[in-house]
């Protein structure tokens, strides 16, 4: 995959005007956007339809963690919007992930990605909720579970990618949030890395946020990320 197709820009904003400005500013440079709970709640699904109508791909990051029936309904709704990826929380177990995968079968272009351990979580955070294993051990356990039930890929930190690639094989998707260019802050992500390091380790896509969206010239910042991947 060429570098442009590997970059997902996170529209982590709370209003339509800001999101539209980012998309307009990036123009043809960017083909793939992440819409999360904040923007979806603020502006509703019509914005997703708008992106899809422009020929953009959408990663709908819902981190679904509900009873299987509700998860299946949300996945079908995502498919009807035309999104390319939707996330489900692997800590919900086999029932939730299976419901998501089965619901996605009616939408051939929709991929269900399982979130393993949120990139802001540390070993200490896991211990607080009764998980005695390290973040890396928990990531691998959940990844194996997701692969077993047929999820199309995983959401994981850049630091987990190399180990996960052996679990998924060559074809599974690994989408990595928590990336920043060298010298930039990784924000709230405790287990971060650079875009280049994530792709080199085996990630299929990287999610970039403020590196691009808060830049004075978002298109120029996007090109810097692309250049980093292409080196």
Name of the CATH superfamily: Aldolase class I
Structural class: alpha/beta
The number of distinct structural domains comes to: 1
Distance between the termini: 14 Å
Q: pLDDT below 50 for ≥5 consecutive residues: which ranges?
A: none
CATH class: Alpha Beta
Got a strand count? 8
Order of helices and strands: HEHEHHEHEHEHHEHEHEHH
Largest sheet data: 8 strands, parallel, barrel
Q: In which order are the strands of the major sheet placed? A: 1-2-3-4-5-6-7-8
Helix content: 40-55%
Work out the strand percent: 15-25%
Indicate the overall shape. globular
- The mean pLDDT is 91
Named at the architecture level, the CATH assignment is Alpha-Beta Barrel
Q: Please compute the radius of gyration using only Cα atoms.
A: 17 Å
Tally of contiguous helical segments: 12
CATH topology: TIM Barrel
Descriptive overview:
The chain has 231 residues and is of the alpha/beta class. The chain has a single domain (3-230), classed as Aldolase class I (TIM Barrel, Alpha-Beta Barrel). 47% of the residues lie in helices and 16% in strands. It is built from twelve helices and eight strands. The chain has an eight-stranded parallel β-barrel with strand order 1-2-3-4-5-6-7-8, surrounded by seven helices. The model has no long low-confidence stretch (mean pLDDT 91). Keywords: Decarboxylase, Lyase, Pyrimidine biosynthesis.
């Amino acid at each position: 995959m060429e570098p442009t197709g590997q970059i997902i820009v996170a529209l982590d904003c709370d209003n339509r005007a800001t999101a539209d400005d980012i998309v307009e500013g990036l123009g043809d440079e960017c083909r793939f956007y992440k819409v999360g709970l904040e923007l979806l709640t603020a502006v509703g699904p019509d914005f997703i339809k708008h992106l899809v109508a422009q020929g953009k791909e959408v990663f709908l990051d819902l981190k679904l963690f509900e009873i299987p029936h509700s998860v299946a309904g949300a996945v079908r709704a995502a498919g009807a919007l035309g999104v390319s990826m939707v996330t489900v929380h692997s800590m919900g177990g086999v029932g939730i992930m299976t419901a998501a995968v089965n619901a996605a079968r009616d939408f051939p272009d929709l991929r269900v990605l399982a979130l393993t351990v949120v990139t802001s979580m540390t070993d200490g955070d896991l211990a607080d909720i009764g998980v005695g294993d390290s973040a890396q051990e928990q990531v691998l356990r959940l990844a194996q579970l997701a692969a077993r039930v047929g999820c199309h890929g995983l959401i994981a930190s850049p630091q987990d990618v190399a180990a996960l690639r052996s679990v998924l094989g060559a074809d599974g998707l690994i989408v990595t949030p928590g990336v920043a260019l060298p010298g930039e802050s990784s924000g709230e992500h405790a287990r971060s890395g650079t875009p280049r390091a994530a792709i080199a380790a085996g990630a299929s896509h990287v999610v970039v946020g403020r590196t691009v969206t808060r830049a004075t010239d978002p298109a120029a910042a996007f090109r810097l990320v692309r250049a980093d991947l292409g080196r």
